[in-house]
Amino acid sequence: MTERPSDVAVGTELPAFVTRLTRADLVRYAGASGDFNPIHWSDRVATSVGLPGVIAHGMLTMGVAARAVTTWTGDPTALLEYHVRFGRPVVVPDDDQGAEVTVRGKVGALLDDGRARVDLTVTTEGEKVLSLARAIVRLQ
């Protein structure tokens, strides 16, 4: 954590959180979640339904963004509420690099009882993949 959450103000920016998702990550997530939909592992199936290729599970992308918030707070239990809309998929190429996902956040409001609303921007290849992504966190 770069700054104590109790010292934040409206406009405080979270450190950028950058991670890569590979096909191996998708396989591990499918096993953990039980979501074995072939759009998450088969290019043939993904393209046959109109996708540009294999895509990451939406809930995996959502989890990556939540991890950015809990890394900043330093306490996973400080994440009290979390909402997103899925805007576009994260396409994960079949290579060793995978897809880079970047999460940026900014404190949008200070709420009652030591809570704050964090507004998130989640992108891959410069395109937003989650919209209306917001978290309510306990600062103290």
TrEMBL record:
It comes from the Bacteria. One of its GO terms (molecular function) is fatty acid synthase activity. One of its GO terms (biological process) is fatty acid biosynthetic process. GO terms for cellular component: fatty acid synthase complex. Gene3D superfamilies: Hotdog Thioesterase (3.10.129.10). Residues 20-109 form the MaoC-like domain. Coiled coil: none annotated. Pfam families: MaoC_dehydratas. CDD domains: SAV4209_like. Belongs to the enoyl-CoA hydratase/isomerase family. This is Acyl dehydratase. It comes from Blastococcus saxobsidens (strain DD2).
